[in-house]
Design a protein that fits this description.
The protein has three helices and six strands. It starts with about 25 loop residues before the first strand and ends in a 13-residue tail after the last strand. Helix content is about 10%, strand content about 20%. It has one domain. A hairpin with a 5-residue loop joins strand 5 and strand 6.
């Protein structure tokens, strides 16, 4: 299936970060962020895949249910700098270790996800 870029929210992309990690700049992003306009609510850094440039970062809004998550058409690979342009609040967390998980706790900040708090869900301004 060909990716229809017209579905994505159009944003101006500025160079916000200088990503020099060895595995590359790719990351997986939920369409809830790039098509529906939610801010990142949950982010996790997994071990990067070797099959394509991969930072290991996975970004979700936090309101995706299991059915949504299980459909690969609801997630796309983006350059990590592009995701920063969708939601600048993630920038200070990007160099976290593999295995790091964060949840949004208010309009502008995240904390380590210990499974004790609800994700603060918010649309982009």
């Amino acid at each position: 299936m060909k990716l229809d870029k017209s579905d994505f929210i159009k944003i101006d992309v500025e160079d916000l970060i200088d990503w020099n990690e060895p595995n590359g700049e790719g990351c997986i992003v939920s369409d809830k962020i790039t098509k529906e306009g939610y801010k990142v609510g949950y982010m996790v850094r997994e071990k990067p895949m070797d099959t394509y440039p991969d930072s290991g970062w996975r970004f979700m809004a936090g309101n995706e249910d299991e059915e949504y998550m299980n459909n690969p058409e609801n997630h796309h690979i983006f350059d990590i700098n592009t995701v920063c342009n969708y939601d600048r609040d993630i920038i200070s967390y990007l160099y976290a270790d593999i295995g790091s998980e964060y949840i949004r706790i208010d309009a502008n900040s995240f904390e380590v996800d210990e499974g004790l708090k609800e994700i603060f869900i918010q649309k982009q301004q």
